[in-house]
Amino acid sequence: MSALFHIPSHPAFAASPSLGFFDPVTDGERDSSSALSLRIDGALRLLDLGREFQAKGEFSRALDYYTQVINDYKDLAFSEYARVGRALILYEIGDREQAITEMEDVSISLKGYPEIHAALAAALYTDKHASLLAENQFTIATLLDPHYADISYVRDKKHWPPSLVCSLHKFITLS
Which InterPro entries is this protein grouped with (predicted)? Predict the structure, then answer.
């Protein structure tokens, strides 16, 4: 490195206008970044709470948290994962038409996310009797992550609701 371009690495020299260094980040940009970080933290906290209550089987509470993420943070890309959780919970509480509609929609926005493809396969097979569509969705899911062919994985690791686990079992066993 040429001595002409040497910038001291000691913290005392970092971006100090008095020493003639230019700081390309404005105070407004710093504030905006901090505000975005706080929003992301808040959304992630709610998403984690939704997952936690889903794992405990407290589906109405999980639904509330997933819905809050979707409503309050729809501008953040990971709100799509809250839509996945919401669709799984809607299926469990009996709103299967809406659940399948949301699964289909999310399977497009999160194309390649194996969980939504596996869930959609189970729902299409059991509720719509659409074997070919279910097979296509399940092929996508298991090519991306073979774990979705294992009932214990979706039940114990992914904490799918019981009715969706049952639907996946019916699909896998073709019963």
Answer: TPR-like_helical_dom_sf
Catalogue all structural domains in the chain, each as residue range(s) with its CATH number.
31-173 (1.25.40.10)
Reduced 3-state DSSP string for the chain: CCHHHCCCCCHHHCCCHHHCCCCCCCHHHHHHHHHHHHHHHHHHHHHHHHHHHHHHCCHHHHHHHHHHHHHHCCCCCCHHHHHHHHHHHHHHCCCHHHHHHHHHHHHHHCCCCHHHHHHHHHHHHHHCCCHHHHHHHHHHHHHHCHHHHCHHHHHHHCCCCHHHHHHHHHHHHCC
Condensed to tens digits (0 to 9), the pLDDT of residues 17-32 reads 555 677 787 777 776 7
Sign of CA dihedral 77, 45, 106, 75: negative
Residue of higher predicted confidence among 16 and 133: 133
